[in-house]
């Protein structure tokens, strides 16, 4: 299996300082605003943060992610069950993917690299559905955070 079937990577250059982008990623209220999810509480390394999706068409769907790392103004990472939007399917025993937000200062602001890896461990047809959906989703979310940090 090649990287295209295991990993999604998106790079976006944001016209905002690293500190601003970091806050948008790690403050649970700000994250919820641009990501379209209402979270029950803050992100804490090693803990699961839960909430409900507010994105049109998925309103009320449960959202959960385990914070894996928070390296201040460098890396925010969480694991989750990708494309977990069908309440009739229990994915709790399935492997998770790892989402990483890497921040790098550049002359015009911040280069944000969003990577989601681990799709190869998922079973078909769920793997293919999650890859397809999340590729589109990360394009949308990259636009959402760009708009949020420059507003």
Automatic annotation (TrEMBL):
Residues 16-148 form the Activator of Hsp90 ATPase homologue 1/2-like C-terminal domain. Belongs to the AHA1 family. The lineage of its organism: Bacteria, Pseudomonadati, Pseudomonadota, Alphaproteobacteria, Hyphomicrobiales. Transmembrane segments: none annotated. This is Activator of Hsp90 ATPase 1 family protein. InterPro entries: ASHA1/2-like_C (IPR013538), START-like_dom_sf (IPR023393). Coiled coil: none annotated. It comes from Methylobacterium nodulans (strain LMG 21967 / CNCM I-2342 / ORS 2060).
């Amino acid at each position: 299996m090649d990287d295209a079937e295991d990993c999604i990577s998106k790079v976006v250059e944001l016209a905002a300082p690293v500190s601003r982008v970091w806050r948008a990623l790690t403050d649970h209220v700000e994250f919820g605003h641009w990501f379209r999810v209402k979270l029950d509480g803050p992100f804490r390394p090693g803990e699961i943060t839960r909430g409900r999706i507010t994105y049109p068409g998925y309103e009320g769907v449960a959202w959960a992610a385990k914070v894996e790392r928070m390296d201040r103004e460098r890396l925010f990472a969480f694991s989750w069950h990708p494309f977990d939007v069908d309440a009739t399917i229990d994915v709790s025993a399935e492997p998770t993917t790892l989402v990483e937000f890497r921040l790098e200062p550049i002359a015009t602001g911040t280069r944000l690299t969003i990577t989601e890896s681990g799709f190869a461990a998922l079973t078909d047809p769920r793997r293919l559905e999650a890859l397809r959906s999340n590729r589109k989703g990360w394009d949308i979310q990259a636009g959402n955070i760009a708009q949020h940090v420059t507003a």
